[in-house]
Amino acid sequence: MKTKKIDVNGISLAYTRGGVGKPLMLVHGFPFDHRAWDSVVSLLEGEYDLLLPDLRGFGESTTVDTQYHIADMADDLAALLDYLGIEKIAIAGHSMGGYVALAFATKHPQRVDGLALISSQAAADTSERKEGRYKTAQDVDEKGVEVVAEAMTPKLTERADAQAVVKDLILRQGKAGVIGALKAMAEREDSMPTLSSFTFPVVLAHGDADALIPIEKSQEIKEALPSAQLVVLEGAGHMPMLEFPNETAEALKLLK
After folding, report:
1. CA distances (Å), 137 to each of 140, 174, 181, 183, in order?
2. Distance in angstroms (rounded) separating the CA atoms of residues 240 and 238
3. pLDDT tens-digit profile of 39-70?
């Protein structure tokens, strides 16, 4: 799929699109770009019209110098849908992409045809986690993205082949996007109270070996929203689309 770009909200937003069927937007996590989904695209493009954006500051998308919020990233996606003439779409977000997907679903519920959260959570950061994100942002500013690549890669997956992929993806990202996203995640709102208002299908897919966001976070969402479908990916870490692409694709097909 060829990368295209549009100008929205003061940035250049890059995206790819391909496949046939129901529209489905795949929103990557931190600190990656749309290529994190590469292993599942071929498994889904026969059933979905896939839309894969690079969130602001990642991949080929630019960002702004001022601080922004997760909701601003969600508004970028709404503007992309406006440009493409897509009224309603299913949206799946991995990790930070799940935060963006939740913000999108909260702000634009009439446009959501289904929501999938992959290795993500709805609760806001604890004060300790928030402080840690700002410390990491400072480290990235002083030392570069390499500090994130070294610290995060072992936590993302235990599989050596997947570690090589994620480390390469991280090192391709720019400092400004990584720093901006860290601050946006630190300041994100608690989405737990909004879950009960969701009337569209919700799928939760989470690895039981996730060392970054424990599966209990998805179980909390399931308790708050009993209608949600929880898919436990046995043996998967934080990167199930790389570790278990077939199982992850099957979970996303539940949105149909």
Report:
1. 5, 12, 9, 7
2. 6
3. 999 999 999 999 999 999 999 999 999 999 99
Tell me the per-residue pLDDT of 186-217, one tens digit each, with 9 for 90 and over.
999 999 999 999 999 999 999 999 999 999 99
Helix runs in the chain, H state only: 38-44, 70-84, 96-107, 127-143, 146-156, 160-171, 175-186, 216-224, 240-243, 245-252
**CB 50 within 8 Å of CB 114:** no
- CATH number at 39 reads 3.40.50.1820
The model carries a pTM of 0.97
User: CA-to-CA distance for 108 and 124, rounded, in angstroms?
Assistant: 20
Range(s) of the domain holding residue 58: 4-255
- Name the helix (H) or strand (E) containing 112: strand 112-118
